[in-house]
Amino acid sequence: MNNLDGNGLKELQSRGPVVLLDVRTEAEVARGIIAGAMHIPLNQLPSRVAELDPSAVTVVYCQSGGRSAQACNWLAQNGFAQTYNLQGGLLAWMRAGLPLSTPE
Questions:
Q1: Distance between CA atoms of 53 and 94, rounded to whole angstroms?
Q2: Which terminus, N or C, of the chain has the lesser number of Cβ atoms within 10 Å?
Q3: What residue spans of 1-88 are helical by DSSP H?
Q4: Nearest-5° angle of CA 8, CA 43, CA 5?
Q5: Between the CA of residue 7 and those of 18, 43, 97, what are the distances in Å?
Q6: How far apart are CA 72 and CA 41, in angstroms?
Q7: In which band, very low, low, confident or very high, does the pLDDT at 66 lie, cut at 50, 70 and 90?
Q8: Could you say which of 34, 60, 62, 90 is catalytic?
Q9: Contacts of 83 (CB under 8 A, 6+ apart)
């Protein structure tokens, strides 16, 4: 599994399209989301994996990095070759002063 931080995510996004996947709960997402992220709670990932493109560069995040690491491992086992875990999750993102959006 590949880990990256907020700056690494910005760098990756500068090179081309990136799918941002938020695997937090509905209640956590209600407090804010990274702009452009897709929300699929971790417990729904197996039933909703068809919504994702296995060939896409996918960066997964949660609140602190644990659930997103699980999601990355699961995705890798299911044919996703380019998955990245946002190290430290949304907490590290906010500590770095990076912006959050209101969920749509």
A1: 27
A2: C
A3: 6-15, 26-29, 45-48, 66-77
A4: 10
A5: 14, 28, 11
A6: 13
A7: very high
A8: 62
A9: 1, 2, 58, 59, 60, 72, 75, 76
The amino acid that residue 100 corresponds to is L
Annotation marks residue 72 as catalytic:
no
Which residues pair with residue 59 across a beta bridge?
20, 84
* 36-73 CB burial, b ≥16 within 10 A, e <16: ebebbbbeebeeeeeebeeebbbbbbbbbbebbbbbbe
Query: Is residue 104's pLDDT more than 80?
Result: no
Tokens of 13: 């996004």
Contact between 69 and 84 under an 8 Å Cβ cutoff? The reply is no
